[in-house]
Structures
1.
Amino acid sequence: MIAAKCFRIPSAAFGPDHQRGVATLIVALLLLGIISAMTLFSLSYGMQDRRAIDDEMAARLAQEAAQTGLDQGLQFFRAHLREAATDWLSPSGPKQQWERCMATDLSMPCGAVAAAVRTNYLRHAGALDMRDVFVDAAGAATQQLIVKMGDHDVRYDIYALLCLVDTQHPQQQCLDAAPDHIGPYAITLISYGTVASGDKAAKSVERHSIARETIAPHGASSHSAGIALAVVPGSWSDSDRVDADRNYVEN
Amino acid sequence: MQTATMLKIDMDARSRTRGSSLLDQLTAVVVLSVGLLGLAGLQGRVQSMAANAENQTLALTLAQSQIERLRGLADLPGGVGYEKIVERTDTVKMIGGQRLDTPFSLRIDVARYQLQPSAQADRGRYLAVDDDAPLQPGSPEFKRVEVTLAWTSKTGVPRSVSLPALISRGTF
């Protein structure tokens, strides 16, 4: 009897009474683990949601940046309307700025024109340099009037195409040689907007958008009513339609 | 005597066991409480982030629609609408007949630029002019507009979204 009681002393210390406490702790830790996993899952979902929203915002800002570039380009041509179809066109003249698109040129902006009529278009050499007419708040010449949208840095490059409208052969869209006398003409502006997406800690991804508009300052629109210009007004931000060399080719 | 000693030892062991069980349970409660409090805080932050993201998207949508409205105004013939693009403030409480949980304060800042003669440039330069400067027919000009939507988050933090744009007068 005594031996039995003596034997129970150590066993009681690790017996069912004590085990109940440890079990509670284990159950509590298990519960905590399950709730932690659920919360982390929810947190991860929330973060993904946040990233998707940031990405969408960046895409929309890229679209706004492209549109802003287009508006600035329009103002640039308003300031240069007189020489745009005269001095800039004069072959071998000191101020010549339009050059004919090559058939194989897929760079901006010639690559945006359908291959069949590409050589009928003239491109403004490179992206427009607009520093001669725009100044920033401090009075310094600037290429971009808007460099920031919200917390995002924005960039836009503006390209221009000139079409000397071929009223005799609408299928050609534009004359394939510069005439002595300038008739109706149309200038197509292509603005390429870029916005960096993602916070500083995360991997930064750039979002792009293109906006385009054709302007017909000298009554070209009345002559070109039956001409389907290869580059049409409009803007969109579907990055799938912007290929690697930054052009959208009409099908 | 020996039996009494054994019984005492047995009782001491039982009481120690009960004490230990209570301590374990208290520890479990404390660990669980601290963990749950931390997780609740985290969950609160996630919800706050989601609400903020939703408001940010809504603010950007509102800013874009305001800019589109102003572009539409500028396209009205004769510069009538263009002249109506002026600075203003407002409060947006409803969209499409639905009351917003968070009201937005709207501010539109406008700066006007005109092509003016300049010694540094052949064609002149776009320089800022006063709002009440007369329109010069044929002279290029545009307005730099900045639409700002501000709101206060549920945690009381002021937030805002600004969208700048250039708006031209009339069609080309």
2.
Amino acid sequence: MGDQPKIELSQPISDEVRKTTCYMCACRCGINVHLRATPDGSRKIRYIEGNRDHPVNRGVLCAKGSAGIMQHYAPARLKGPMLRTGPRGSGQFKQISWDEALSIASEWLGKVRNDDPKKLAFFTGRDQSQSLTGFWAQQFGTPNYAAHGGFCSVNMAAAGIMTIGGAFWEFGAPDWERTKLFVLFGVAEDHDSNPLKLGISKVKANGARFVSVNPVRTGYSAVADNWIGIRPGTDALLILAVIHELLKARRIDVDYLARYTNAAWLVIDAPGTAEHGLFARNGDGAPLVHDAVTETATPAGTKGVRAAFRGRFDLGDGRMAVPSFQLLAEKYLDEAYAPEAVADQCGVPAETIRGLAAEIARAAFDEEIFVEQPWTDVNGERHQGYRGRPVSFHAMRGISAHSNGFQTARALHLLQVLIGSIDCPGGFRFEPPYPKPVEAHPRPHGRAEHFGSNQPLSGPHLGFPLGPEDLLIDGDGNPARLDKAFSWDAPLSAHGLMHMAIPNAHAGDPYPIDVMFLYMANMAWNSSMNTAGVIAMLEDRDAESGEYRIPKVIYSDAYSSEMVAYADLVLPDTTYLERHDCISLLDRPIAEPDSVNDAIRWPVVEPDRDVRAFQSVLIDLGARLKLPGFVDSLGKPLYADYADYIVRHERRPGIGPLAGFRGRNGDRHGRGEPNPNQIERYIENGAFSSLHIPMEAQFFKHANADYQAFAVRLGFFDKPAPVTFQLYNETLQKFRLSAEGLREPYAPESHRERILTAFSPLPEWYRPFEEEAVDRSTYPYHAITQRPAAMYHSWGSMNAWLRQIHTKNVLYVPAKICDEAGLETGDWAWVGSFHGRIKVEVARSEAVNDDTMWTWNAIGKRAGAWALDPKAPEAEKGFLLNHLIKELLPPAGDGMRWSNSDPVTGQAAWYDLRVNIEKAEPARRSEPHFASTASRTERPAELRYGQEWD
Amino acid sequence: MHPAYSVIVFTTVSGLGYGLAAVLGLGLLDPSQTATKLAHFAALALISAGLLSSTLHLRNPQRAWRAFSQWRSSWLSREGVLSIATFVPLCAGAWLAIFESRHVPWIGATGAILAAATVYCTSMIYASLKSVQAWHTPLTSACYLLFAFAGGLLLATVFAALSGSQTVLMIVATAIALAGAWIVKAMWRVRLATMAPLSTPESATGLGSIGHVRLLERPHVTENYLTREMGFKVARKHAAKLAWLSALLGGALPVLLLVVSAIPPFAPDLSPWLIVSALLSHVVGMLTERWLFFAEARHAVMNYYGG
Amino acid sequence: MTSLPQPAPAKKLGLVIDLDICVGCHACVVNCKEWNTGGYGNALSDQDPYGADVSGAWLNRIHTFEVVPEGAELVGEAGEARIVHFPKSCLHCEDAPCVTVCPTGASYKRSEDGIVLVDEDKCIGCGLCAWSCPYGAREMDLAAGVMKKCTLCVDRIYNETFEAVDRVPACVRTCPANARHFGDLGDPQSDVSKLVAKRGGMDLMPEQGTRPVNKYLPPRVRTPLAAGADMLAAENTDGASGFFAWLDGVLEKI
């Protein structure tokens, strides 16, 4: 057909490609931003694609990243600094200049710093610059700083670090190439999403098996070879039953346990004393093992020792001790952990649990792999290669967001250690700078002696207490921090408890504050439990003074999120394409198991509004407040902006925010002098740096001499820091001793029972608190959220493309409950919890646990927010489960305000929610519905993006 | 399928026009009567109005001329070409009737054949679509042709009555044609009610070998072009009522009115009014029938949209 | 030209979509929108983009189905429903009804590679091609009034300004799960043809007689975990004492 139209097939796509780092979620993929001139002479973004060279995403890009154009040009972008003029929540502001805004902020902050620094609460949300924000808060001197980890996934992080020196996501990843069995627990679609998708695809392409344990079969679970539709909050039971089966069948890696774990460490057996259950140590504090050859207690790791795994030994001073592994084996061999014993609780047939255990054993031991690569361990022993147990696991919020999530995560790590699959070929692999032993992390700072008027905090805010003596409490046991992190309420809350900051500040418990400074955290909506309550707290005024109970709120965000209306002073941030950022090894790294990586963002387009990158603003404020580290000895600002800080700031000599292209010539990696051209070098390199880890250092990093030397050379540590995996956890036992009144400091009476329940030194399941507290026949079901792959939390409704995919959410109700309650797709229902009720549209779902209803997270929006039409489906029909979730547990009659969190780490227990459901009259609007916050943004009636190039 | 008013009006009105043109072409009305001249004019006007209405649903009507190019494959193009071609004998016939008061059989017959062919093309636009199983049957064309012819006869009866001519034969012919059309339409509806779906969610997804396929989530939450255009649904009960109503107004009532108009004491004084009423009833009935024709038809794409 | 090309094109460019691995992330959907709104023809417009009745023209959409086994051959656990994410775009049919119904010649199938395209300058926006397509592959752009459809990224796949590796449709390049494959399905030796042969690639709605070029790979057969439940039991012996005796034996050997 010769008359077919001739079309242009080889048009260049753009005038220039600028490579930077995505920020449509926290995955941090490399992107190529194509810029193209428009007929009016301006340049616009033509296309954003994945960067093929980038170690995170290797060229692919998800829905969110691909919608970056609409995020960048969204009408919801804030236009300039604003000062509140109407009451909080009204959305009435006046535009002010940056000078004015920064003067107000520094006046408020300066006063607090002088009078009582703890009256500043500085919390950052989906912050990727915690190494700066934490440093700033430390120099400011308030004890009240954290990011959002407390309501995100701290159980996973803390349990991982305390067990194996690392955890999932930013700490490591499955060996996708070699694994033969991949087991995924819980929802994981929102974090590390492209690497996970790439990995799952590889697993399936290699013919390996993929098992998903999740009450809901959406997302990744949909392509799993096997789906275990477990009842929420019972994962630990399932895992411990698998461990029971593996022990019974002798399918554990004893050699691995002997080499890399504390299995042989002797645990003092002296009930009723302050040392019962602690490790026996020598005078230097070194843990002891029983040498079966010399029949003596010998420091662990001594050459030539054959350490016993069982027995009861005299320590030579009359004290008796047993190897920790004996405690472990005796505990889990008990029939209480048999599959039959847990099947009903889990809602999983015993046969399936046994099948999972068999599959794990088969893959780990019958499909053992061996990678020929001589290497040397930290004891100097030479190995011919790496033995691999090709079973890998991944989990995130799913098992984490329960009040028993810490112990569940511990159980999962324990399982991996028992089969010898941590950092071996085919197993879970650490990503630098992990592994890192818990001792190498700092202790938290924030007690009264750590801070004072106009002085910095004496050390970092966040860290890992090694026992009750490291808690941030006063002499009476009262919390030193506003969020009660590192108090008896949540002793190991390594990421703080951001979800408690507003409720506690409002209640003045433990004390009132003056300024709340928040960054990128939608606390007046989807990031808070009890959303309506939190809104009321922000609006609540002192009866006498008429002043707000939380007097001043400074908020920085790029978009008009729900939180903006509750700020007194708004500092508008840029979009991710207009800013400098660094994805730093000091913060939340993007390293891969075989490479050390970090990255930057840089302004690939110039802002067209009066906005400034928050990090530069923070540095400016630091200089105005004359904070150490931000001004020189003469009080002159040290840094022009964040880019300048990224290049010149040194945390330790030679160690800065970016590890690549250091040194005068840019030829040093890890350690090196600041390089004034560092940012340019990153830009030339595609906005990231990557250093390959030598093959002889790639596995068993926790005990690999070459890796340890590599880590020291790069500056992760100043001396080697190998990790001994902690099957039995002594820190937890110390808290139990405190709770038993045997070891000082003693836990308050009020907290003893829960500490004894939750701080088992060997992983244990206990019933989630809400489930325990409510009448289970009144609230027979679970309600949880799943994470839509095309929407990152609340970020996306302002995006014209993404919001079309999830314009509203419905509640998916299992067929069984539908049939019982007479519900059909399209019906409306009241869903109630002990705290509140919501009226929502429902849909029938079959591929879900029988007792669990679910919906997509954070689709519901408040009318007037995000520059949407107040009648938008997000606001009319969308809804949040947050209205059903209280930040406090049901009152127990003890007068305590118990946070709805894990008692170990303070992790928000989002997924503990228990509900009932009944059919409602059809409606046009979900309940509760909130009055619209004023929205004056002009919205186009139509978009024809790209028509300018037609 | 979405019952778009432009298309409903187009098929109904142009159907009447072509039907009337065909009746005129067969020389069933006396060309010397003023009413017959008016009838010729009316036929052309209805056809033109229908065609104009059909362009209303084009989003770029300025390019409509291009639609004459693809007559080799496209029924829509054929319809366009034939509709224009049909104007030639129809205009010629009208000229002869209006200005010369005569009927030339070969010109009339050509016009009638082309009118029928145009209506057939219109019907084939729908009947050729395998994706809309309800339409994909020769009965669709039969309905279109018979309804056009019956409507044309009815309209011709009106003009005959206006001219004071003898209408009994016309009434009998109209009644037979209407009965025939509605019998065929009834067959069309029986087929619709009893046919096994050609495509199912199982065949649409290829997942039938795993089990029963049910939509859990639409690709995008809100409506889109496809769901608006093809996702129209009418409740079965409601449709059944409308179907009866359309047959009553479009067939039974007009026949009754025509018969009554032919018998004393109504004839002859009330006859014209009764015959006009029969026509109006028929038009309302046909508009209902056409609305249902679209509204009841399920498009295969709805297998992907849970519809 | 609305007639299908004769003889039928030997080269049949198309997509192979793997339902066994698609996780329904919508990456392909949005990347397609992003590429094509600034690419071939008019922009893909969105109406009421920040309002109550938002909708737009998209060339690729992912549906989510629940499949409940009902006595059919069991794939997976007995009685278990499963979810299948189902991306759908133009299948570039060999007997494309959307081409032959077009009255203006705007809709055509390229003789050199079989891609079905719309010449937007000729499109009158009658919508008949969308009606004729059983798959819902065509969507009217309401701003331009012309029909939009998947072009198989015809402005990418031959684009000599790109590196060879990038000369694939945007959806294929961006898919994080590698669930989308592009190639010549007319060549039995091509990777995509071999993949289709190996995995039993299928046509959608074969009964419509459209002979789609795009193929879908069905989810693979799965073995229930419970099937292996007995594998461990055989090695099981009595209680903790037996366990520790075994452990001593193993430690001896280390």
